[in-house]
Amino acid sequence: MSSIPHDHAAGGHEHEHAHYPGGIMRWITTTNHKDIGTMYLWFSFTMFLVGGVMALTIRAELFQPGLQVVHPEFFNQLTSLHGLIMVFGAIMPAAVGFANWMIPMLIGAPDMAFARMNNWSFWLLPPAGIMLVGSLFVPGGAVSAGWTLYPPLTIQNGMGMDLAIFAIHIMGASSIMGSINIITTILNLRAPGMTLMKMPLFCWTWLITAYLLIAVMPVLAGAVTMLLTDRHFGTSFFNAAGGGDPVLFQHIFWFFGHPEVYIIIMPAFGIISEIIPVYSRKPLFGYASMVYAVAGIAILSFIVWAHHMFTVGMPTAGLLFYMYATMLIAVPTGVKVFNWLATMWRGAITFETPMLFALGFLFLFTLGGFTGLVLAIMPVDIQIHDTYYVVAHFHYVMVAGSLFAFFGGVYHWIPKWTGTMYSEKLGRIHFWLSLVFFNVAFFPQHFLGLAGMPRRIPDYATQFTDWNMVSSIGAFGFGISQFVFLWAVIKCIRGDGAKAPAKPWEGATTLEWTLPSPAPYHTFETPPVVK
Amino acid sequence: MNDTRRRSDDPDVRASIRRTALVLASIALVFFGGVLASRLFGDQSIGMTVVGAAVFLFLVLGIGRHLGRK
To answer: Do A222 and B24 touch (CB under 8 A)?
Structure first.
C-alpha cells in the first residue's frame, strides 16, 4: 500500500540539529543511515564507471573483427571483472544504498536497527572493490574465467583468482550483515500502526530480497571456499584430475546465481512500485497481489537454477522440470507488470523524469523477461546457449531493468535527499539518450546471438561485423550519457536548482514526504502514528 | 562514533532486535556449513542432515519459547 494516512503532528517531530564530526571523520565514523546510504550510492556509481570503462574497452575490441585494442588474455580478464564489478560492486550496493536511505524513512524508524554494523557493512566494500580491480595488476592478471568462476579454469588461474575469492567473501559478509540489518529494522522498528501489509512496496521487496541474500550468499561463500581449498590445500571438490566434479560447482554457483538475479531486480520492482502510483496519482493497483507475487518469485527462484546449465548433460526429466519451473516465474512477474499498467490506467499521468525511467523500465524489462522466457525453452536454449542472445537478455534485465529503476529512484527522491529539485531538462536528456543508446547497444546483440556469435570472445567471424559496430557505437553513447546524470546529481548537491518543497510530487503519499527537504539528519526519533 | 538516538533503546525492542538478528545469522551459518559439509564428507545427505537438523532445532527452540511463555 503506497498511500498511508498518518498523524504526523502526533509524533513526527524532527531534530534539525545534527551532531557529527566534520570532514572525512564524519563519513568514516558515521552510523547515520542517510550518510551510509549516500556512501553506498557513491561507491556504487564509482564502481559503475569502473565496470563501464571495462565494458567500453570490450566493445572497442569488438568494434571490428581481429585483435586491435587488447590481448585475448586481458580481454577475458575484462569480461570477468566487468561482470563481478557490476553485480557485486555496482548494482547490489546501489540497491543497499536505496534501502539505507529510504527504508527507515518509509517505515517511520529513526535509523537502522544496528547502526554500527551498518557502518561496518559499508566500509567492508571499498577494500573488496580495490582488491577486485587491483587483481588486474598482480602476476597472471585478474580472474579470466568469467564472472561465474567455473572450474577448472578458476583452479588454474593465478593470484588474481585468490583476490577475487577474498573480495567475494568480504562482499558476501557485507551483504549478509546488511540483510540482517534490513530485516531486523523492518520487523522491529516500524512506526505504530504500520502493519506489514501497510508498508510501502519498496520495503516489502527489500524484506524478501534480504531473506534471499541470507539464504544464498553463504552458499556462494561455501563454493568459493571450496575453490580456494582446491587451489591451495590439495582438496578435489571440483578438480576432475583429483576425482572432483566441475559440474557440481555450476550447480552450487547457480543455486546462488539465479536468486541473485532476483536480488538485483526486486529492489528495482520496489522503486518502480513507488514511482508509478505517484506520477499516475492513483494508489498502487493490487497491493496484496504485488506482495504475494514478489514472494512467489522469490520462492520459485530457488528451484530453477539448472536452466543456466541445460547443456551440461542432465536427465530429460530434470531438463523438463527446470524448463517448466522457469516458465512458471512468468506468472507472478506478469502479475506485477499488469498491476503497474492497471495503476496507470485512467490515472492523471505526468511524465517527469522518474516516470519516464519507470516507463522505460516497464517496456524494456518486459522485453528482457520475454527473451528470458525464450531462453527457458530448453531446446531453444541448447541452440543459443553462451551466445550473444544471452548477453542481450541479461543486459535488458540488469541495465534496462535495475539500472533504469535506480535512475528513476534517484530522480524521484533526490529532492528529499538534497533539498534541491533536479533539472528536468537534464533528466529528460539523460533518459532519452540512455534509452536510445541502450537499445542501439544491446538490441543488435539478439541478432548476433541468433546468428551464432559466441560470448566472451575477442575476435569473431566477419559476418558479425556490422551489428558489432552498431552495438559498440551504442555502448559508447550509453556510457557518455551517464555523465549527464552525474551532472544533474552534482547540480542538486551544490544546490543549483529550485528549492525542493517537503512534498514536490502531488501524488506522493508515503511517510518520507512528511519530512522537510532536505530530510533532517535525524528523523522520526519520535515515531509517527500511522492510521 | 557519532550515534543517533533511537527508540530501539527500549529493552524489549532491543531484545527482539537481537533475537531476530541471531536467528538470521544462524540461518546464514547453516547454509554455509551445510554446503561445505555436504561436499567435505562426499555425501549430499550430509548437507540435507545439517539443514534438517537446523530446521528441527529452530522448531524446538520456537515451540520451547512459546510453551515457556505460557
So the answer is: no
Contact residues, chain A, for B3 at CB < 8 Å: 31, 115-116
Phi, psi of A285 (to 5 degrees): -75, 130
- Terminal CA-to-CA distance of chain A, rounded, Å? 13
Tell how strand A6-7 and strand A529-530 pair up.
antiparallel
Contact A62, A466 (CB under 8 A): no
B68 touches chain A (CB under 8 A): no
Q: Tell me if residue A111 falls in helix, strand or coil.
A: coil
A505-525 pLDDT, tens digit each = 999 999 999 999 999 999 998
Judge whether A183 and A211 are in contact, CB under 8 Å.
yes
| Cβ neighbours of A19 (radius 10 Å) | 10
Q: What is the DSSP string of A46-60?
A: HHHHHHHHHHHHHHH
Q: Count, in order, helices (H) and strands (E) of chain A.
A: 19, 2
Q: Is A183 touching B (CB cutoff 8 A)?
A: yes
- Decide: A315 and A323 in contact? Cβ < 8 Å: no
> pLDDT grade, residue B67 (50/70/90)?
confident
What ipTM is given for this predicted complex?
0.76
A213: nearest Cα among A113, A146, A298: A298
Higher pLDDT, A269 or B7: A269
Please name the residues between 7 and 46 in chain B that touch chain A, using a CB distance below 8 Å.
7-8, 13, 16-17, 20-21, 24-25, 27-32, 34-36, 39
Q: How far is CA A193 from CA A5, A399, A509, B5, in A?
A: 10, 37, 16, 21
Contact A21 B35 (CB under 8 A): no
Does residue A82 carry a catalytic annotation?
Answer: yes
Structure-block grid coordinates of residue A319: 531438463
Check if the beta carbon of residue A379 is closer than 8 Å to that of residue A477.
Answer: no
The pLDDT score that the predictor gives to residue B42 is 67
